[in-house]
């Protein structure tokens, strides 16, 4: 059931609701280690039922189920508003012998993990069956809510966004829609990615019912930018900002992580090299690196078969500037 709205303005910006993107977010929220409240309260029962399995299914150290988007693209069901065809075509899409997806929005480590997931699905029919049934079970738990109001709400929002952008859209128009001055704080490369995709007609905006605040996925040239549509009240906004900024500051509230950051400012290194230099186990180093990475404090580039981590002055300044901006907006 496609729901793609094309605009013929200078940007050729597309707006589309997507059940597969809703499923990606349901899986992501299942992995949360905290209670889902506010706009996400209805997903808490799903998290409690499926959360442990969501965390353990792939067991590759990478959070998220962006592979769902890959499967939707390969099954030509990305813009369906239900998942019937997605599950009907799942096995063929997962078994398809295709090049690894580009996924330029992800880190090298994440790209490697998602490519390995696709390889395993291609090679193992039983794994495909278990994964399909797991995804189907999670969707079944959310389907009543989606059909009762979620689907209609995102379709209506997609139509509203299309009308707002009907005469052509620029970067600032897109950011107003997603309520962001930057697409992703601490990751300026995402702004560049969105601007280029917008200019070349490769950007698709998606309003979401089960979405968090925002997502960005690049997949073989297409850039999918999503924004949750359920509003937060003032108290909930303050709570979320306080939790987010406390988590950001906590990423540096550890002497080892600070030492790692200072080392990486001058000496780009792999996780193995860091473990050797700091005389710590590789899992310990990986844990610290993940915290710094999620805070947007690290850059990652492939060097041969390993990923080299680094940071720089501008990255650190941007980190503290983002925290400052978020806090100071409550003083006005």
Low-confidence stretches: 1-11
Radius of gyration: 20 Å
The whole-number mean of residue pLDDT values reads 89
Specify the overall morphology.
Answer: globular
Which structural class matches the secondary elements?
A: alpha/beta
* Relative helix content: 55-70%
Number of contiguous helices? 14
Largest sheet: 5 strands, mixed
Main sheet: strand order: 1-2-3-5-4
Element-level helix/strand string: EEHHHHHHHHHEEEHHHHEEH
Count of strand segments: 7
Q: Which range does the strand content fall in?
A: 5-15%
Distance from first to last alpha carbon? 45 Å
How many domain units? 2
Structure description:
A hairpin with a 7-residue loop joins strand 1 (4-6) and strand 2 (14-16). Helix content is 56%, strand content 11%. The strands form 2 sheets. It has a 5-stranded mixed sheet. Strands 6-7 form a two-stranded antiparallel ribbon. It has helices at residues 19-30, 44-56, 67-74, 84-88, 90-95, 108-123, 125-164, 171-177, 188-199, 234-250, 255-266, 271-278, 282-294, 313-328; strands at residues 4-6, 14-16, 203-208, 214-219, 222-228, 299-303, 306-310. It contains 14 helices and 7 strands. Helix 1 runs antiparallel to helix 3 and helix 10 (234-250) packs antiparallel against helix 14 (313-328). It folds into 2 domains: 4-228, no CATH class; 234-331, Orthogonal Bundle (Arc Repressor Mutant, subunit A), CATH 1.10.10.
């Amino acid at each position: 059931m496609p729901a793609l709205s094309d605009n013929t303005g200078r940007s050729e910006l597309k707006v589309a609701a997507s059940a597969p993107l809703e499923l990606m977010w349901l899986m992501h929220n299942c992995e949360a280690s905290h209670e889902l409240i506010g706009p996400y309260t209805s997903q808490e029962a799903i998290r409690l039922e499926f959360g442990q399995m969501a965390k353990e299914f792939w067991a590759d150290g990478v959070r998220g189920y962006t592979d769902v988007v890959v499967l939707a693209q390969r099954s030509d069901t990305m813009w369906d508003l239900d998942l019937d065809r997605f599950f009907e075509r799942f096995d063929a899409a997962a078994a398809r012998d295709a090049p690894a997806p580009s996924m330029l929005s992800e880190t090298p480590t994440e790209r490697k993990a998602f490519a390995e997931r696709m390889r395993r699905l291609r090679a193992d029919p039983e794994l495909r069956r278990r994964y399909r049934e797991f995804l189907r079970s999670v969707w079944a738990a959310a389907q009543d809510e989606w059909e009762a109001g979620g689907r209609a709400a995102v379709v209506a929002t997609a139509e509203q966004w299309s009308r707002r952008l009907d005469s052509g859209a620029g970067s600032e128009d897109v950011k107003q829609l997603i309520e962001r001055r930057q697409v992703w704080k601490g990751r300026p490369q995402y702004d560049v990615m969105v601007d280029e995709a917008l200019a070349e007609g490769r950007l698709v905006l998606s309003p979401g019912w089960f979405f968090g605040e925002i997502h960005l996925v690049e997949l073989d040239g297409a850039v999918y930018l999503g924004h949750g549509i359920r509003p937060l009240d003032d108290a909930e906004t303050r709570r979320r900002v306080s939790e987010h900024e406390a988590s950001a500051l906590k990423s540096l509230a550890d002497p080892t992580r600070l030492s790692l950051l200072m080392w990486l400012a001058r000496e780009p290194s792999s996780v193995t090299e860091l473990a050797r230099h700091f005389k710590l186990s590789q899992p310990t180093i990986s844990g610290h690196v993940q915290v710094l990475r999620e805070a947007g404090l690290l850059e990652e580039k492939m060097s041969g078969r390993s990923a080299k981590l680094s940071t720089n002055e501008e990255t650190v300044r941007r980190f503290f500037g983002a925290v400052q901006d978020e806090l100071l907006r409550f003083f006005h």
